[in-house]
Amino acid sequence: MPVLPTTAYSQAEDALTLARALVNDTSGAVFTDTLLMPLLNSAYRGLQRELAENGVSVLMEQQDLELDQNVSSGVTNTEISDVSSPQLPTDCLMPHVLWERATANTGDVFVPMEKFTSGGGMLNLQPSSYLRLWEWREDKINLIGATQSVTVRVRYEKVLPSLTIGTDPVQIRSATDALGYATAALAARSRGARALAVDLLGAAQTAIENLINRYIRPEQTTGRRRKPYGYRRGFVYL
Question: Are 139 and 176 in the same domain?
Fold first, then answer.
């Protein structure tokens, strides 16, 4: 977790200070840190959801999970969830990439697994030596199962830890304006100032859109040409 003063991550107090200035309480006589912190955390979670819905992953984590072969069934677990063993990491928001290797072959490299994206559920295949496929559905990783113990490396988007004190780092870069305006909007609404809340909410949305553009724009450098009318992609059946 970044905590050094020279980090590019701002602190929670930066957003709180901006929020107090926007509701005309710079001294903090009314909107103390204790009062504003739950509102800031609400804005913090909302910002992460907004970024995720636009394809922006904020904080990534990676863990290795060992799936042991079940003695009775002869295969490993067919899911990794909040109640399975091993358990899905408690801070997992969304898995992005999975790799696997045989647990006994510690010298082997991890091989990427293919993500199954059909909405009809996991394929009904016979278990083999490796898992091969994975699917994220109903807040769990669904698998086919393997006939040997397999170690799965999961790379996932991590739930942002709640902010508790002013010096906590905000682990979304350049998010002070978006969080400050959103927190101020929630604070104004809590005091019945609905007109001010609506105005601040609009400013917060603009700041969020600018933040999303900053993340996405570098990925739009490749030129794209529209396909001509009547173009059909050719298929080769092997």
Answer: no
